[in-house]
Amino acid sequence: MKVIVGLGNPGKEYAKTWHNIGFLAIDNIADVFNFKNFQEEKKFQAEISTGSLADQKIILVKPQTYMNNSGAAVGAIIKYYKIEPADIIVIHDDIDLPLGRIKIIKDSSAGGHNGVKSIIQHIKTQDFARVRIGVATPKKEKIGSADYVLTKIGFLQSSKAKETIKKTASAVEEAVNISLKSAMNKFN
Predict the structure, then answer these.
(1) Does residue 113 have an active-site annotation?
(2) Count of domains in the chain?
(3) What average pLDDT values come out for the chain (188 residues) when binned by 10 residues?
(4) Interior angle at CA 117, CA 125 and CA 165, nearest 5
(5) Domain residues for 180?
(6) What is the CATH classification number for the domain harbouring 73?
């Protein structure tokens, strides 16, 4: 069993912001691979969907704890299901990568991402995979990173963001069906 977590913030005001591209990617994975509808699970403080890839059970997770406390939801889920950290894939925005690019890494520091930092603190390891989705556009330099990630994805960037989200689904499928290393070689 694998747990795939998309990071973001709950609420309509954050719905189509750069910081929620992890949620958008998880929603796309659920659609593409015909997972069940997301259901709120209060005991995990998350929305959960289940399905399978390559005959392997997958739990898709959208923490509802807000980004900076994502680890509370992830920690509760892996404890309940007895999941090893190596069987977790976290999908999140990355302000240091240009829009359109993804990078798959494993066993790496939070790199300044507070959602990832929270997960590391709660599960007491950084030994899990991450799919970093590039969200940087020239606008980032004008308004600063903290404000930028909370801006809405603009019309001009929308098609490139959708392409990147589709690429993320393919990368996750490769990681689950073949191997994380294969996904890194193919998509990094």
Answers:
(1) no
(2) 1
(3) 96 92 97 96 97 93 96 97 96 94 92 92 96 89 82 88 96 95 95
(4) 100
(5) 2-187
(6) 3.40.50.1470
